[in-house]
Amino acid sequence: MCKTAIYPGSFDPITYGHIELIKRALGIFEDVIVAVANNVEKNPIFSVKERLEMIKDAVKDLDNVSVESFDGLVVDFARKKKVSVIIRGLRMISDFEYEFQMALTNRRLASDVETIFLMPSEQYSFLSSRLLKEAAHLGADLSSFVPAEVEKALKKKLKK
Ligand code: ADP
């Protein structure tokens, strides 16, 4: 049995939805590696370094969580870390098609790596980093969506 799971994503930026998923994963696995994708094609607004720092700060009170970045395929990163479980989140039906395609593609690439989906609580089931950035642009109060440090960083970034 695998004691460690990898939770990969863009985390641009990390939200309470991601954080809740990490906590749920810790209820099943002993350790969770949060893996920040260095995916320039998604045009992230935060650099990998900034995303890593925000996540590290957000999970500082959680035991057994480490935070790393990776380039390339998540299955290659999983193999490098000798981990055979990938955690992904499923919010609504809209996530399903993309996540399903990706999980099956990853299975084709690495049949020894399993993807497990976790669902957030209802309050976070509509929350995405993309919508968050739009709301931040419009000057919304983000305190119920992200930790204070992330809200500060978002506002600073969007002022530039
Ligand atoms: P990616 O670009 O890889 O989709 P994201 O940071 O947007 O990166 O999401 C990483 C994973 O976390 C995805 O599986 C996504 O469905 C999940 N996720 C994002 N926001 C939430 C949320 N509010 N609740 C549960 N899962 C979420």
Task: Walk me through this protein's architecture.
- The chain is of the alpha/beta class and 160 residues long.
- It contains six helices and five strands.
- It has helices at 16-26, 48-58, 74-80, 93-109, 129-137, 148-159; strands at 4-9, 31-37, 65-70, 85-89, 114-118.
- The strands form two sheets. The chain has a three-stranded parallel sheet with strand order 1-2-3.
- The longest helix is centred in the middle third of the chain and has 17 residues, at 93-109.
- The radius of gyration is 15 Å and the shape is globular.
- The mean pLDDT is 95.
- Bound molecules: adenosine-5'-diphosphate (ADP).
- Adenosine-5'-diphosphate is lined by residues 9-11, 15, 17-18, 21, 42, 88-89, 91, 95, 99, 120, 124, 127-129.
